[in-house]
Amino acid sequence: MLTLTDLAASYPEQTQCFSLTAAPGTITALIGPSGAGKSTLLAMIGGFARVDSGTLSFNGNSLLPLTPAERPITTLFQDNNLFWHMSVQQNIAIGLNAGLRLNEQQQQQVQDVALRLGIDGLLSRKPAQLSGGQQQRVGLARCLVRNRPVLLLDEPFSALDPALRYELLQLLREQTNRMQLTVLMITHHPSEAAGVANQMAFIHNGRILELGDGELLSAPRTTELRAYLGTTAVIREE
Ligand SMILES: Nc1ncnc2c1ncn2[C@@H]1O[C@H](COP(=O)(O)OP(=O)(O)OP(=O)(O)O)[C@@H](O)[C@H]1O
């Protein structure tokens, strides 16, 4: 279980304070307006942003003393950080060994994850020879091959067209179940995310203002979430 209790950081323009629990095998979608604090939240969990107070633990162990590399966490960003001069195989392998020296078992792990993500036929290509959706699969494969129990996704599928986003969300759902991952995913497509997420957190002005399942979108409690969703169509008839 990933547990955040009053995890806080103060910036001149915004104080952020988050409490949240996320269980293995679940996807938590983080939604909210630009500047709400979604990326900062992931950065605090990943160890890339300052934390002033509060607690952050995984299975009861505090993560705060750990460096990003020591945390049981892997992060996929929108710009998937692929290396353009390397093959797909090497781009995945680098998740296991920065020097690309893999033993037999690790080579097998690369094959396995590529197969699961449907990119096993592309291993010798360079990223420039792939579509956007295939590139994001490679980025996801690099994260998954590391076998870390917590996966943080900072809008990795946003630039894809809706059909590809749907495909990748389904893949993510399958792998979350299979590997019992704890996934936190920032998205600007709330209704798409609701199809695969176990819980939705609406973040506003550095706080989680609403937390619930997909119903959150059809029955927003706050004017802020209504404004974010931007249409009266989502307000349930009383
Ligand atoms: N290093 C920093 N220095 C100063 N302020 C910061 C810093 N990091 C975050 N903030 C504050 O946190 C706010 C939230 O930023 P953040 O990028 O987390 O929002 P977001 O919800 O991810 O937005 P977007 O959807 O546009 O990516 C910023 O507006 C800023 O006030």
CATH fold-level topology of the largest domain: Rossmann fold
Number of domains: 2
Biggest sheet: strands, sense, closure? 6 strands, mixed
Q: Secondary-structure element sequence?
A: EEEHEEEHHHEHEHEEHH
CATH class of the largest domain: Alpha Beta
- Can you name the CATH architecture of the largest domain? 3-Layer(aba) Sandwich
Trace the largest sheet across and list its strands: 6-7-8-3-9-10
- The total beta strand count reads 10
Tell me the span between the first and last alpha carbons: 36 Å
Helix content: 25-40%
Classified in CATH, the superfamily of the largest domain is P-loop containing nucleotide triphosphate hydrolases
- Name every ligand kind in the structure: adenosine-5'-triphosphate
* Overall mean confidence score, pLDDT: 92
**How many helical elements?**
8
InterPro entries: AAA+_ATPase (IPR003593), ABC_SmlMolc_Importer (IPR050093), ABC_transporter-like_ATP-bd (IPR003439), ABC_transporter-like_CS (IPR017871), P-loop_NTPase (IPR027417), Thiamine_ABC_ThiQ (IPR005968)
Domain ABC transporter: 2-230
GO molecular function: ATP binding
Keywords: ATP-binding, Cell inner membrane, Cell membrane, Membrane, Nucleotide-binding, Translocase, Transport
Structure in words:
- The protein is α/β, with parallel strands linked by helices.
- The chain folds into 2 domains: 2-72 and 148-234, P-loop containing nucleotide triphosphate hydrolases (Rossmann fold); 82-147.
- The protein is built from 8 helices and 10 strands.
- Strands 6-7-8-3-9-10 form a 6-stranded mixed β-sheet, sandwiched between helices.
- A hairpin with a 2-residue loop joins strand 9 (199-204) and strand 10.
- The radius of gyration is 18 Å and the shape is globular.
- Adenosine-5'-triphosphate is lined by residues 11, 13-14, 32, 34-40.
- GO terms for molecular function: ATP binding.
- This is Thiamine ABC transporter ATP-binding protein.
- InterPro entries: AAA+_ATPase, ABC_SmlMolc_Importer, ABC_transporter-like_ATP-bd, ABC_transporter-like_CS, P-loop_NTPase, Thiamine_ABC_ThiQ.
